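Sorry, I am new here, but would you mind making up a protein's amino acid sequence and the tokens describing how it folds?
***
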Amino acid sequence: MGLDDKISNKAEDLGGKAKEAAGNVTGDDQLKGEGKGDQISSAVKDGVESVKDAAGKVKDKLTGN
């Protein structure tokens, strides 16, 4: 996972947490849901990047790089 991807995913996660907190404070269920959705999206992206990293390591071992 590249540094840009990590930063982007972390920013999305933090933004989602802020939206969720703002939704809780204001009683805005839609905003709270958007925040949770942003956090889930960030977690999925992190998971995909982790799988890509692991696959790259396996490939490197198989090819001797």
